[in-house]
């Protein structure tokens, strides 16, 4: 169940990112994209859409790995390593804004703080979800 929820979050994140292709520069800014990508979207250059599609593809792959770990789809190559790597990336991505908020609360906005909580939660879903299903999914 945890991995299915992680997959929904990952694919939802991909859809949210892809929505910027339609919604434009403001969407990139709200999603805390780097300044270069926001400027690319404003100027109509290819950097923003290419980076967006690349990142969204990564999130979709992460979602598929979560579904594989949950046994919903066939077992993917390097499943254990990939799930743990995804979990670590998400947890680190979640901890970074939280620790920054603890040290310098005036320098971080609410959106970045809540994104951090979301990333941390997602990483824990990957970690605990996979550990709970390890007996059911062949190694």
Structural class: mainly alpha
Q: Main sheet, how many strands, which sense, barrel?
A: none
Mean pLDDT across all amino acids:
93
What level of helicity do the residues show? over 70%
Write down the secondary-structure element order: HHHHHH
Q: Could you state the oligomeric state of the chains shown?
A: single chain
Label the overall shape: flat
> Total helix count?
6
Percent strand equals under 5%
Outline of the structure:
The chain has about 140 residues and is an all-alpha fold. The protein has six helices and no strands.
Search tags:
single chain, 139 residues, mainly alpha, 78% helix
Walk me through what this model shows.
This protein is mostly helical. The protein has one domain (2-133). Helices cover 78% and strands 0% of the residues. Helix 3 (35-43) crosses helix 4 (47-69), helix 4 (47-69) crosses helix 5 (79-103) and helix 5 (79-103) runs antiparallel to helix 6. The chain is flat and about 50 Å long. The model has no long low-confidence stretch (mean pLDDT 93).
Topology:
Elements: H1 2-23, H2 25-30, H3 35-43, H4 47-69, H5 79-103, H6 110-133
Helix pairs in contact: 1-4, 1-6, 3-4, 4-5, 5-6
């Amino acid at each position: 169940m945890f991995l299915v929820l992680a997959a929904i979050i990952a694919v939802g994140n991909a859809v949210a990112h892809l929505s910027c292709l339609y919604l434009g520069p403001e969407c990139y800014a709200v999603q805390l994209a780097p300044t270069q990508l926001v400027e690319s979207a404003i100027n109509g250059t290819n950097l923003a859409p290419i980076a967006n599609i690349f990142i969204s593809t990564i999130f979709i792959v992460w979602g598929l790995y979560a579904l594989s770990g949950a046994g919903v789809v066939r077992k993917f190559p390097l499943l254990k390593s990939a799930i743990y790597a995804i979990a670590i990336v998400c947890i680190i991505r979640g901890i970074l804004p939280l620790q920054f908020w603890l040290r310098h609360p005036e320098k971080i906005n609410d959106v970045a703080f809540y994104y951090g909580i979301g990333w941390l939660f997602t990483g824990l879903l990957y970690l605990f979800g996979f550990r709970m299903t390890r007996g059911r999914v062949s190694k």
